[in-house]
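[SOLVED] Need 3D model of a two-part complex

Original post:
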Amino acid sequence: MKVAMGFLGAAALAFAGTAQAAGPTDPEIAHIAYTAGNIDIAAAKQALAKSHNATVRAFASEMVRDHQAVNDKALALLKELKVTPQDNATSDALSKQADATLKRFAKLNEHDFDHAYLNNEVAYHGTVNSALKTTLIPSATNAQLKSLLETGLTLFTEHQKHAEHLAATLK
Amino acid sequence: MRIAVAALIALILTAEAPAAGGTSRSYTIVIDKMKFGQTPPVLHRGDTILWVNRDLFRHSATAANRSFDIDLPAGKSVPMVVKSTGELAFACKYHPGMRGVLRVRP
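Solution:
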């Protein structure tokens, strides 16, 4: 749990940096959202490589599938709009923190990993959802990008609830 | 004229004939933006539901009592013949917050 909370704190700080700025541009928002999705896909792939728990594996598969679908849609939209995602400090900070978390989780035994992964999923989705609500969606100017972010928020809120349920019932 | 009126009456009676009388009906339930659309007020055993998934995401229509479990890949439509009766609560097994209820009469 400490590991998960460590990442939660760091991720929250990264998003807080975004919030303090004048407001991210659409290319920056797209990059942050895409990065956040990729981070969860990488976490899920680690879970699929490490865990033998059927519940954890089913959830991880769902994360890969759903986040990949959103990211594919985001890429298609950006291409249509001729917008190039722009790297930024928030995306960099998120990626560095996620890499560190993957390394820490890699050292855990399977039982501890299962719990850490699900707890981190609860925390991570909570942080991303908060950033979507308070910063990314209000700052987005393109209607299609805003709509996709809103769909993402609905989906990720569902992921958060699902992870909370699984984390609470995992033995 | 008589024939036309008779045909019209026959048509109305056919359209309103209950499924219990042997006529099964088809209904559509659309899934969009992470929600199940409106379900028919009443179904009868033998009716068909076309589950239409308009979302980007894979969903399922899974009965709480497991009497049905329909896999719904993104953008696909899947028909299902209603076989059980009663109040059938269902959800998406991938996104358990997505829920609905089918009310099925014999």
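Edit: Residues 45 and 60 of chain A are 7 Å apart (CA to CA).
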